[in-house]
Amino acid sequence: MSLSNREIADIFETVSDMLQLKGENVHRVLAYRNASESIRAWPRDLRTMQREGASFNDIPNIGDTLSEKIIEMLDTGKLQFYDKLAAEVPKGMIDMMHINGVGPKKAQRFYKELGIHNVQELEQAAREGKLRDVSGMGAKTEANILAAIEALSRQTTRTPLGVAYPIAQSILERLLAMPNVLQGVAAGSIRRGRPTIGDVDLLVAVTSMDEAPPIMEAFVKMDEVERILGNGPTKSSVELHSGLQIDLRILAQERWGTALAYFTGSQAHNIRMRGLALDKGLSLNEHEFSDPQGEKEPILCATEEDVYAAVGLPYIAPELREDRGEIEAAQQGKLPKLITLEDIHADLHMHTTWSDGGLTVREMAEAALERGRKFIVITDHSRSLGMVGGLTIEQLWEQQAEIRQVDADMNGKIRVFHGTEMEIKGDGTLDYPDDVLEKLDFVIASLHVSLRQPREQITERLINAVNNPHVDLIGHPRGQYIPDREPADLDMDAVFAAAKDSGIALEINANPRRLDLEADYARLAVELGCLLAINTDAHAADNMDLMHYGVSTARRGWVEAKSVLNTWPLEKFLDWVQKRGR
DNA sequence: GCCGTTTTCGGCCCGACTGTTTTCAGTCG
């Protein structure tokens, strides 16, 4: 029984926790943690790599030792090292370490002094007032742990970007309206466009730190605050009623660049940046570059460009800051010319009242025109998807007549084309025959049903659609839904190879609950020579405003505009479609 | 345990805040 990338990443993460609990060398602990994160982000299937004889040392943070451990897991489905540790460390103690404010040291003390093995026993002891007697603890620690255990049960997963982003913007707008606030931004993983958010990092600049206290006070007293987790002069954290944690940092305008860079992260990117600074004899933190010997004057940076310039690099876009080769690319002058929201002037995937959308064809066209789109494709669901009113072939032609009329009425201000989002059915066949597909302007094929089929079966199903010459785009290829539904178990290497051969495009679905393809897959797809499209899958007018999420995802995947169908001029797009099966 | 214009050993980012301490350890990001 071979393990998936995710399962192997989970094992390394738990090994890291167990080593930490045992008080192992912090760098060894970190090595397992970094390896876990690298594998989690790695887009290629380790089983496939092993079959091809590829080296796992190409994966960042995987050396000879961990490479051997991966092979052991792939061959046997187990890791002896893990089993040995698991026999020594009670599993409940790992869970205890995941409580906010409890680390390895406190978990050990609870275990040694009170014999507590797990979160339930810890909660019980806290309620009975026993924790305050543990050495180094007091009544406050006890209360905080109790509150943190309750918070843990409220929020177990990371928050989807599409949920966190509007909340962050709403709070930020209120802060920006306050006196003396010069500028503000949601930094952290929101700014990097990660699909899910741990907590929200807000940053605001003031002229002088004397102006900070009233801003901090207003922040921790907002209506939506459930409780205050920390409240200092420059940094405060609150938990909202929703369970989402928001951190606010206030800093002087003249240090905006270093602070913004620091709080945008990622942590891995920051560590590399600090290393580059040290190479130049400078220590970098959120405030400044300083001389460790204290001989030279500190360097303040008001912009991020200044920060990168100080270590001899060009500006690196936030979406690239994951230590996935962006530092090296910057050093070699090989950073990608990333796609921007302004590059997008079409939307190739949207629904109307013909199936499960909320607006008519004409209303969608007008809404798209208002948003500056130059052309759109109406792609309602196909006949087998009865739950959402999929169109029969007869309805498809009625719809085509309406779309032609709307297109004519728009008088060239925006072009409206007729497509479909056709179901790839559970048995692997497509929902419309070829003689129907060739009469449409554009064809998307998508998976919505039987997403839990075994790997071989569902991969073959998708590749069958990729190879149909009438299909132009695969919609949300992996079928994930954030945060609840895992992607289908697809052999993406095989899908990308087939997509390259057939010349078909793959979607980055911009809906923040999908973001599918995700960044690492989009990056691999382009590297392998595939084309992409970024679409909103809009079911209503305001859904069209979600495009920026898709663009961030593409940017995280190092995608340039030239690889994306809906950045092309209309003529080029039509030419491309015509050279495919119609 | 990883990694290499410090390359097979010896480093490995750095500060804010909290709570319990009387000067700092633990945790977090």
List keywords for this structure.
alpha/beta; 16 strands; globular; DNA-binding; single chain; Beta Polymerase, domain 2; DNA polymerase, domain 1
What amount of the residues lies in strands?
A: 5-15%
Rounded mean pLDDT is 92
Order of strands across the biggest sheet? 10-11-12-13-14-15-16
| Structural class designation | alpha/beta
Q: Radius of gyration over alpha carbons?
A: 26 Å
What is the tally of helical segments?
A: 24
User: What is the domain tally?
Assistant: 5
Task: State the name of the first-level CATH class of the largest domain.
Answer: Alpha Beta
Poorly predicted runs: none
* CATH level 4 superfamily of the largest domain: Metal-dependent hydrolases
What sort of overall outline do the alpha carbons produce when their principal axes are compared?
globular
The helical percent reads: 40-55%
N-C termini distance: 45 Å
CATH architecture of the largest domain: Alpha-Beta Barrel
**CATH topology (fold) name of the largest domain:** TIM Barrel
In short:
Helix content is 43%, strand content 13%. With 582 residues, the protein is an alpha/beta fold.
Please describe what this structure looks like.
The chain is α/β, with parallel strands linked by helices. It has 5 domains: 5-88, DNA polymerase, domain 1; 91-154, DNA polymerase, domain 1 (Orthogonal Bundle), CATH 1.10.150.20; 159-255, 2-Layer Sandwich (Beta Polymerase, domain 2); 261-331, Beta Polymerase, domain 3, CATH 3.30.210.10; 341-579, Metal-dependent hydrolases (TIM Barrel), CATH 3.20.20. It contains 24 helices and 16 strands. Strands 10-11-12-13-14-15-16 form a 7-stranded parallel β-sheet. Strands 2-4-7-6-5 form a 5-stranded mixed β-sheet, sandwiched between helices. Strands 1-3 form a two-stranded antiparallel sheet. It is globular and about 75 Å long. The mean pLDDT is 92. The protein binds one DNA strand of 29 nucleotides through residues 25-32, 34-35, 60-66, 100-106, 136-138, 140-141, 144, 188, 198-199, 201, 230-232, 234-237, 247, 249, 262-263, 265, 267, 270-271, 273-275, 277-279, 283-287.
